[in-house]
Design a protein that fits this description.
424 residues; alpha+beta; Rossmann fold; 4-stranded antiparallel β-sheet; 19 strands; 35% helix; 17% strand
Length: 424
Amino acid sequence: MIGNPPYIRQELLKEIKPYLKEKYEVYSGYADLYQYFVQKGIEVLSTNGCFHYIVSNKWMRASYGKPLREWLQNFQIQSIIDFGDLPVFEEATVYPCLLEINKKLPDDLFQACEVESLDFTDLEHYLGESCFESDQEKLSKEVWTLLDKESQSILSKLGNSGIKLKEHVNGEIYRGLITGLNDAFVIDEETREKLINKHKSSEKVIQKYLSGKDINRFIPPNSDKYLINIPNGWTDKKFSNRDDKWEAVQEELPAIADYLSKYKKAAKKRYDQGEYWWELRACAYLESFEEEKICWRNLQSRGEFTFDKRKHYINAPSVFIPTDEFELIGILNSNLGWFFLSNTTAGRRGGYYEIKPFYIEQFPIVKPQTDEIKKKVDQILSTKDKDPEADISELEEEIDQLVYELYGLSEEEIGIVEGSISRN
């Protein structure tokens, strides 16, 4: 069975989703159509038949691919050749991989390769030099990462260490806010001052605000941007007895109302809004923004975690954890932390990885027995707060060694991790 199945996003499958759910074990409400072609292709094979498709590689790490990953573990993988984000097809932005399956029970290693360049004349020759053996049994249920057996063992060792981050923080891993219209609701320092000077009431609905580019590795953020924060439900709660709600808002917040009125037409059209066009969309954890927090960019090419002690509101798709355990960023920003994250999250073009809550909640946390990591992270944060350009490399190296000790890595395992980091 050889093929290149159609790629059709789940949004266009609405009418046939009930049928797909009933007929296919690999069903997910968010899966692309090609996922079902994989199951059908293998099902129609005779015993020991060979299946070879070119498909998107996203199913290996995306949450919607989990049913497919679990189902494929019933068969022997022969090879997976992942082209990552290389432009294999000039006129299409896809992330292709070659998936080869043998229809028999899994009983052997498989050949894997992450193609790093299209600068070759013979793919077979390139694969002969670049492929490595990977252990099917060590493929995680959460994500599939193509690693050699030694790296797989380290990743498995880490995965079985401590407790998951999600459990450690009681599930409090949150995405930032979506305003639906940043031009209206995100303002600069000058606009903030004008609004407050025009009417003092403005100050109570203006909060310090971070965008993704304001979040940088170990640098305590201090943005010059602000959020006009009129949350969903605020109007009805405050003016329950008023028929004309906008008139009431104009009386309560005259400067803010005058400013937002310029954006009324666009604000009414946005999908993300509250009960009224001047309100933000509902957010169950809105108060958590007003706490100290660990925060990070959604897309990273290395650990970009930092600690926000100034209690900013944060935009999506950035992510945060309301906590005062700032020592955790030492673990997350360490070389070992990046080894885990870069091998368990979805890759994107340009060497970036998507650090969504779904992925990072699986990060294993081992509680330090001493305050050494905490002290060094505190020293880094203080240094970077005074001088964002300060050299902290020596402290980072010391933290790396402490984290290796914390997770019980041998010298040989450390060498494998360091080699992987240097290649990335």
